[in-house]
Amino acid sequence: MNHYRPASRRLSPDRCFAADPAQRAVARALYAVVRELPLLCPHGHVQPALLAAPEARFGSPAELFIIPDHYVTRMLYSQGVPLEELGVPARDDRPVESDHRRIWQRFAEHFYLFRATPTGLWLADELTNLFGVEERLSAESAGRIYDHLEAQLARPEFAPQALLKRFNIALLATTDAAADDLAHHQRLHADGLNHIRPTFRPDALIALSRPDWPAQIAALGRAAGVEVASYADFVRALEQRRAFFQQMGALATDHAALTPYTHRLSDGEVATLFARALRGEVDASAEARFTGHMLIEFARMSAEDGLVMQLHVGSLRNHNHAVFTRFGPDNGADIPISTEWTRNLQPLLHAYGDDPRFRLILFTLDESSYSRELAPLAGHYPALRLGPPWWFFDSVNGMRRYFDLVVETAGIYNLAGFNDDTRAFASIPSRHDLWRRVSCDWLAGLVVQGLLAEDEAHELAYELAYGLAQRAYRWETW
Amino acid sequence: MNHYRPASRRLSPDRCFAADPAQRAVARALYAVVRELPLLCPHGHVQPALLAAPEARFGSPAELFIIPDHYVTRMLYSQGVPLEELGVPARDDRPVESDHRRIWQRFAEHFYLFRATPTGLWLADELTNLFGVEERLSAESAGRIYDHLEAQLARPEFAPQALLKRFNIALLATTDAAADDLAHHQRLHADGLNHIRPTFRPDALIALSRPDWPAQIAALGRAAGVEVASYADFVRALEQRRAFFQQMGALATDHAALTPYTHRLSDGEVATLFARALRGEVDASAEARFTGHMLIEFARMSAEDGLVMQLHVGSLRNHNHAVFTRFGPDNGADIPISTEWTRNLQPLLHAYGDDPRFRLILFTLDESSYSRELAPLAGHYPALRLGPPWWFFDSVNGMRRYFDLVVETAGIYNLAGFNDDTRAFASIPSRHDLWRRVSCDWLAGLVVQGLLAEDEAHELAYELAYGLAQRAYRWETW
Amino acid sequence: MNHYRPASRRLSPDRCFAADPAQRAVARALYAVVRELPLLCPHGHVQPALLAAPEARFGSPAELFIIPDHYVTRMLYSQGVPLEELGVPARDDRPVESDHRRIWQRFAEHFYLFRATPTGLWLADELTNLFGVEERLSAESAGRIYDHLEAQLARPEFAPQALLKRFNIALLATTDAAADDLAHHQRLHADGLNHIRPTFRPDALIALSRPDWPAQIAALGRAAGVEVASYADFVRALEQRRAFFQQMGALATDHAALTPYTHRLSDGEVATLFARALRGEVDASAEARFTGHMLIEFARMSAEDGLVMQLHVGSLRNHNHAVFTRFGPDNGADIPISTEWTRNLQPLLHAYGDDPRFRLILFTLDESSYSRELAPLAGHYPALRLGPPWWFFDSVNGMRRYFDLVVETAGIYNLAGFNDDTRAFASIPSRHDLWRRVSCDWLAGLVVQGLLAEDEAHELAYELAYGLAQRAYRWETW
User: Fold this and answer.
1) What residues in B contact A334, CB-CB < 8 Å?
2) Full strand arrangement of the beta sheet holding C196-197
3) B349 touching A, CB under 8 A?
4) Which distant-in-sequence residues (6+ apart) come within 8 Å of C101 by Cβ?
5) Does the beta-carbon distance from C411 to B116 stay under 8 Å?
6) Do C411 and B322 touch (CB under 8 A)?
7) Chain A to chain B Cβ contacts (< 8 Å)
8) CB distance C380–B113 less than 8 Å?
9) Domain range enclosing B149
10) Are B275 and B330 in contact (CB under 8 A)?
11) What pLDDT band is residue C93 in, cutting at 50, 70 and 90?
């Protein structure tokens, strides 16, 4: 029934490795050690529902690879392909392309756009090594490959739960709203999938000016069993939810902010500000001050309850208003801005940067801050670790620049290892494989330049693939 | 009559290629394909008069290589050689060196300053491959080489029009004031040189505070046949001139700004502001607001008439007041500043960034914005393309950093290919050759690391050398 | 008596060299030429007392390698080792670890933290090549190595004065407070050690708001024999001190500032501001304006007396208040901020940037300014030179980025060569060796890519190792 016949598409077993034979030999040796290690995924956006229900499926190839992946759709959009033609659902219910085979064909015709991009590498790896596609995706091959993928996806071994085992994932943290009931995680844990863990994300609760903020506060109150009528109630409800997440196995919290501005408000100031917000009296300035205060407050909670705090900074969301109006958020129109860490983070670090109970992992979209600010900060404050290259920089060159710019100052042991930060579950092994390849090649470069002994490189390859993430997120199996 | 005898100066045929034998072999193969392709020069500053008159000549070696080239004179100046001694004409008519042979000798004595610089590479290539100089330029060889160059320059095959053919230039865009009568282009086209095209540059018309602004407006009015007594007249005159440029084959407009700040003023605001400017009532703030408004207005015109919009941002001109006072602008004292694109360009992109008629090509002098802002913007907005590394970054490492920082996020197809941006006509082949070498070597690096198939690399080598520029500037021969 | 027996620790003779055999061969050839050249150390922080007294000794291995070295202590602190346990003296006289052998053991247990860092490279080189340690430092070997080091340090050939000769140092500039009596230098010169020179550092005299400023002014007045009751007195006292330093062989001054802001105050403004400061009436804004003014005033003095002016910018000192309170400054908690040079330095450069008597050497902690601002500035203004990569960037990759980002625009001859900027006297040869290796490897890379002739590379290797520093600091032996 499967008409698919393999053709010419081959991935180099040495991809990401330097051409130099000496360096390549060392890289291969290091990679051989870490290639099969279990995957630690301490930060990501996989929907727990996908894994909780044994009957869940990925849907069509277009649903798996194209429609929900803004890495893919933004690139096609940048070259003139309307999002409607890619089946991206419109907010206003205007019709969009619903023929998934046509969406796939359109994607295949533009697949050349992903040459020399990480998305291109992940897709090639996923098609080849996960789905067994052996010819190159093109307008001509699109139909055959679609058939092949459709057939594969119908097979039980391509159900999400089946892949969860096959991927050898030791830890998978999802990212969940603070008011979430974590029902999917309850089911997962009941089914023995204890390694799927929630992460506490309270961003919606501090976005005072968003229209849905009152609804978010109400939901928090319901979930926590606390009537949130004051700032003190708010803090109590947050602490209650954190405790619940922790019971459910959460290792960490996650926070996004436009800037890393932190500043503690006095008790009176924050009480007044919050009371005004409850009455609908807020402006952008009040929201920024509240965010700056709450980051310190979340640091305090982390110091007390031990949840690792993650901070992702610097994305100006929904830059394209027309796309946002028609299609909503997360459509490839989030654009970074420059980020100042040294002064902005100082109040938070004064309060908790030296606290041995506290752990803060930082993620940036401004690479100029790697060597100037982040590495010196992480090379001093005991609480700090540097997250891996994020988003646009989760790429071969992004990783190389990160290693080159960060390690000499921060050392390797102040890094937090890798996380894939993806909602595309099926791409997880490809993303970790890229990190492992690039980190082994980078270590090999140090070895052949006489800057690292080969036994040290072996230890560090393990650390970068597994150990650092394990310790940064204080991961222990139950 | 030509006493010149070749000596030891040899350029490596593999210059710019990695030492690694595998990578070098691929680079050579790619370069062999693109090396002889015609040159597309969609942005530059060659004087059309030089090409329009068959009798035009380059002048002496000092006039060709030194006196007008601020890349050369600034480096000698930085090491203590007065500009007067290099024959740079002074504004105050104080005498400067007029013995071109002495100027050449001075230059040759300091030629070592250009080691490891792009100017050094261009000059070596030009001397060797265009003029047949085979010994190295030094204090000792200066006189012999001067004689040789003088003899060559006297020959008809070194006339600018002769070189235009020899260079295999398929398109050469000049940059012309909005009020220019384009008489040289008329003559060029009458002589069948249809591939020399004007570019519409209206910068002088929006510099409200410059002393010559009233004169510029008057010249615009005369050229357009419009009496410019209001903002509406101003817009009408600009549109008239754009139409004329377009009739004369213009493909693009060019705009320089200190920052990419854009903000649309209301009709009333801009009418009032312009009326005040006509009465001489302007300040720096009004000028900045007007520039921010006009960039959006020029985008509107481009969307309507189809001229590609180029935007060069970030140079603080005439940083050295003493040099400016004595020698005027363009003497190597323009210094970059940091540039914010994400927020500044948002109003313009909201208005026209999704418009399929509109094309905007961006050029930066702040490399920290490559990966942080420009690549994400170009990887989303259909109207955007990224111009090649500009000015100081038109160099081996500048190109490598550009590829490394930009392509993974923006993809290759959101680049605008190469342009030489030079007023030094005779250096054009050397500049394109450097780009072609570096881009082939970069592609070869991807191939040997297993990140790109060799047939893809061949296609991309062609795109980087020719195809991208052709499409970015919508170039079609008449 | 020395029980130490060599074991397995070996440093590659080719460390820092590319793996590519062609590049490595050229790098070796270049390095062979410069490896044994005398060391020029025109900027550093070695205590002159250490060298002036023949009886001075380094103390214990912990005193030599750990306790005073904030590069070492900050990394251990970042991984949770309290500074008290490293024997760092506390301001409040709380007890800290005093058992040096235990401090050493703690350091050895954490020595893996320095993998892939410059501190790790320097330490390995120093232990191996200076002290003859041949096994790797680890928890297991710590005790044996401590014994070995202790024995070595007791030998007369490891006295500081003995090492000064062995190191082949041709020039060693210390950094000295403006009011210093330079008694140690007097003794050094009397003993024939004319190559130990003071450097004039007046920073404490312009920090108007620091509690000890009145005491600093009083000390200046005493040293200069001037009662400082006005700004005019202050300038006279500074000029007097500079003349004294110059008599004592000073080549340069050194200035640190948070930003390179410069702005000349009027005579009246500065007189009033200074008078207020003497009355204790200052705020942060007044101090910043005074600093901006004084930088221009120091430039004037340098133009007049010929002392080379050094400017180190961009470190936010004492970021960690808790560490500062307990342990004081210089404990690894100085964090860089982004730095704007183009506009900030313009007033100073307008005044003296073209002055052939003036020399200004710039040091940055913001690498994004290398290619954007510093290289264009240095490639134009005759007075400017770029200092080597500083502090966090005095590293293999830091040097490589510096060469890649700076040289194409500024040229090599606008660089100031290397300086070690260290207070760790025994590490000086290791630091210079790293620079020489990396610069030779970088030049070799240019050679094998056909971008530089091999004879040119030899000249430039010499320049980078010796010639540039010699000329930048106008060094001539007495």
Assistant:
1) 376
2) C39-41, C169-173, C196-197
3) yes
4) C62, C143, C146
5) yes
6) no
7) 133
8) no
9) 58-158
10) no
11) confident
pLDDT at C173 over 60: yes
One domain for residues C253 and C396: yes
Nearest-CA distance B270 → chain A (Å): 24
Based on the fold, state whether residues A47 and A70 are members of the same structural domain.
Answer: no
Which residues in chain C touch residue B334, judged by CB atoms under 8 angstroms apart? 376
Q: State which H helix or E strand residue C315 sits in.
A: strand C315-316
Question: Residue C4 pLDDT more than 60?
Answer: no
Residue ending a domain, choose from A115, A142, A157:
A157
Query: Which is nearest to A51 in space by CA: A151, A176, A189, A244?
Result: A189
Residue C403 tokens read as: 């060469």
Quick check: is A333 in a domain?
Answer: yes
Residue C356, chain B, CB below 8 Å: the answer is: yes
Residue C408 to residue B365, Cβ atoms within 8 A: no
Interval B84-132: pLDDT, tens: 999 999 998 889 999 999 999 999 999 999 999 999 999 999 999 999 9
Residue range C75-89: average pLDDT? 97
What is the C-alpha separation between C374 and C351, in angstroms, rounded? 18
Judge if A99 and A33 occupy the same domain: no
How many domains does chain C fold into? 2
Scanning every residue of chain C, which has its alpha carbon at the shortest distance from the alpha carbon of B392? C409
Does residue A170 lie in a domain region? yes
**Nearest residue in chain B measured CA to CA from C459:** B112
Chain B residues in contact with A434 by the CB 8 A cut-off are: none
* Residue B190 CB burial class (10 angstroms; 0-12, 13-18, ≥19): exposed
CATH number at residue B282: 3.20.20.140
| CA of B323 vs chain A CAs: smallest distance (Å) | 33
Q: Is residue A3 part of a domain?
A: no
The domain boundary, picked from A108, A124, A157, lies at A157
Pair (B137, B225) in one structural domain = no
Question: Which B residues in the span 425-464 are in contact with A, Cβ-Cβ below 8 Å?
Answer: 445-446, 448-453, 456, 459-460
Written as six digits, the tokens of B186 are: 């008329």
Do C191 and C273 share a domain, yes or no?
Answer: yes
- pLDDT per residue rounded down to tens, chain A (478 residues): 334 333 445 799 999 999 999 999 999 999 999 999 999 999 999 999 999 999 999 999 999 999 999 999 999 999 999 999 999 999 988 899 999 999 999 999 999 999 999 999 999 999 999 999 989 999 999 999 999 999 999 999 999 999 999 999 999 999 999 999 999 999 999 999 999 999 999 999 999 999 999 999 999 999 999 999 999 999 999 999 999 999 999 999 999 999 999 999 999 999 999 999 999 998 889 999 999 999 999 999 999 999 999 999 999 999 999 999 999 998 889 999 999 999 999 999 999 999 999 999 999 999 999 999 999 999 999 999 999 999 999 999 999 999 999 999 999 999 999 999 999 999 999 999 999 999 999 999 999 999 999 999 999 999 999 999 999 999 987 6
Of B16, B136, B365, the CB nearest to C449: B16
Do residues B291 and B308 both lie within one domain?
yes
Tell me the ipTM for this assembly.
0.97
- Closest by CA position to B217, among listed B300, B275, B289: B275
The answer to whether residue B13 sits within a structural domain is no
How many A-C residue pairs are in contact by the CB < 8 A criterion?
Answer: 132
| Dihedral of alpha carbons C270, C275, C276, C277, sign | positive
Same domain, A406 and A464: yes
CATH code of the domain containing C146: 1.10.2020.10
For residues B145 and A243, give the distance between their C-alpha atoms in angstroms, rounded to a whole number: 82
Q: Indicate the pTM of the whole model.
A: 0.97
Chain B hits for A368, CB-CB cut-off 8 Å, are 368, 372
- Say if residues A337 and B373 touch (Cβ distance below 8 Å): yes
Distance of CA C160 to the CA centre of its chain: 19
How far, in Å, CA of A457 to CA of C195, rounded? 42
Which residue from A minimizes the CA distance to C324? A350
B window 73-112, beta carbon within 8 A of C: 74-75, 77-80, 112
CB contact C336 to A (< 8 Å): yes
For residue A456, give the chain C residue with the closest CA.
C115
Q: Do A441 and A452 fall within a single domain?
A: yes
The verdict on C23 touching B (C-beta cutoff 8 Å) is yes
Could you tell me which chains touch chain C, where touching means 3 or more CB pairs under 8 A? Answer: A, B
